[in-house]
Amino acid sequence: MLSAKPWKSEAIVRLLLSVFICHFLGSVAMSVTRFPGAKHPVNPWAFGALVAGCVIFSGAALFSLRKPWDLDRFTRPFVAMLLCLYLGLTLGAFVQYYIGKPAGENPTLRTVVAALSSQGVALGFIWRFVREHRVGWRDAFGFTVNWKMALLLGAVVACIALPVGQVLQMFSAGIMSRLSVKPEMQPAIQALNNTVMWMDRVALGVVAIGLAPVAEEMLFRGILYPAVKQAGYPRAALWVTSLLFAAVHWNVVTFAPLLLLAIVLTLLYEKTNNLLAPIAAHSLFNALNFVMFFLVERKSG
User: Fold this and answer.
1) pLDDT digit string, tens, across residues 194-221
2) Contact 150, 277 (CB under 8 A)
């Protein structure tokens, strides 16, 4: 049975907004790297001003989110934060508009930057989030609660979930083909398809097997799920967080497999009261998919 967590709603909102802002800044940074080949010519000084304004206003919004909100003096700082966020997003949107759609971009760099600006910074904000609530990592995520059994159960779940997920993915792709909709690959798979250097593949492996499972499990299962559940909505906590987890991967073909995986990982955390279980399952699930990709590639080659 999952133990109660002291998570505050306003702290969760600040955490999510902080991660969103950093992820957006990461996408803006990738746009800046494509400036020399931009399809919409713009004066370099004007473009630089747009980038600087985006960074300044987004940074100001991010800075205002570092401390808990004082409800007695809430309105003015909150409005200022929203204004800075709006200006930062607007200027960043103009930066991306002038650059145009990605073309000839290094897929490995794009994937790594996206991961570092979302999952990477999420780990830092989660560390601050836990400290802010004045709890240890055991109380926060139960890392020492029967950890050997948690790791074993995680491994078993990953081995079972892999073939089931593969079947669901093929089923989803088949439905899309019948509807004359071309299935799109996940960005990580697209990056793997376009990499030949082993260093690039190592970088993608570290992101997929090490970084993403830890950050995503802490955020979705470790923080969001208990918060919604303790608010009095246990079923909504399971379904909403699972649907959100599947949706943020932005891929129709993998939506059903990821939804099933998220539900299983949530139930696993509920059963073990140790976040190591879903982290291990998620990491091994990604690792097995990673290995399968290279086995299929070698066979086809």
Assistant:
1) 666 778 888 888 999 999 999 999 999 9
2) yes
Query: Cα separation of 190 and 106, whole Å?
Result: 11
Q: Which residue has the tokens 């949530």?
A: 266
- pLDDT > 90? residue 20: yes
Q: What is the mean pLDDT of residues 92-118?
A: 82
> Distance from CA of residue 33 to its chain's centroid?
22
pTM for this entry: 0.90
Query: Are the beta carbons of 82 and 17 closer than 8 angstroms?
Result: no
Contact status, residue 133 vs residue 7, Cβ threshold 8 Å: yes
Residue 206 sits at φ, ψ, to 5 deg, of: -60, -40
Write the CB contacts of 252 (distance below 8 Å, at least 6 apart in sequence).
172, 176, 181, 183, 184
| Alpha-carbon gap, residue 252 to 179, rounded angstroms | 13
Least confident of 9-13, 173-177, 240-244: 173-177
